[in-house]
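JOB MANIFEST
job_type = single_chain_structure
chain_count = 1
residues = 334
[input]
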Amino acid sequence: MSKPVQWGVLGVAKIATEKVIPALQKACNGQVAAIASRDGARAKAAAAQLGIARAYGSYEELLADPQIEAIYNPLPNELHVEWTEKALKAGKHVLCEKPLALTAQEAQRLIDARASSGKLVAEAFMVRFHPQWRRVRELVRTGAVGDALAIQTLFTYRLLDPANVRNRPPGGGGLYDIGCYALLTARYVFGAEPTRVAATLDIDPAFGTDRLGSAIFEFSGGRHLTFSVATQLSGAQRVTIAGTAGRIEVKVPFNAPPDRACEIVIDNGADLFGGGARVESFPAVDQYTLQGEAFARAVRGETAWEFPLEDAIANMKALDACFRAAKSGRWEIV
């Protein structure tokens, strides 16, 4: 086995300290060697809590560490491009949290940074590595539900803390935080890009961020994605993929727990009470660990990274169009 990739983490975001760092520490081919914060005390506290060897009081110090090979960037959305670009220029590979940028135009800067550095840069959508989504895509592509023509996604949580980064412009709001998942998984399952979108957003008057958003995306071949995402509703997650000969329901599509099995339902539509339904179960896995291991293999040149930067930019183009449609009140071309 090749030498474990040495990871450094920018910041002490909750997703990093509670989910991604513990997941990377379970990976067979990586080691979290350093963490940085603009507050040195916070970096030291996180390092002590998580058993990380080195803590830095600035992001620049971490990027200057010659032993660090790969950076995980969980900073606020508006800082993703800036610090991913700096990490690439410092000669590090980068796994950046979603969404990669605030606009596709901003994300485009990373194309040049990737070319100049020769390093791997990727958007961290862990769901694509969970076996349940791999299976869903396989079922759709092999015609298990006939022609899959409609995807309906609901993704909501309730967060009222004004200090939380998800409730602060310019990078907060539901569309950036979770609408991106609805788009990504539809593109993943359909294997295609949306062509146009109609959308509406309800903006919180105090926070200035979208708290409820709904959209319909049109894909070629008469296929549709419809979704609603919210930051101030009770928590819920469901994805339903409807086809001409059945449907697939993904019960816990996005925050799949690392310690519990997940299920999908394949229903041939025999009746409305599940008489034609069967369940497929997937053993507990940590999708963040699987993502980290795949990234490390790509860093070592053992396998190619499956989702290039261009895929992230395509997702951002669709998000851009969604924001435009909500503002214009018209269909907008992606």
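[summary]
The mean pLDDT is 97.
The two ends are 44 Å apart (CA to CA).
exit_status = 0
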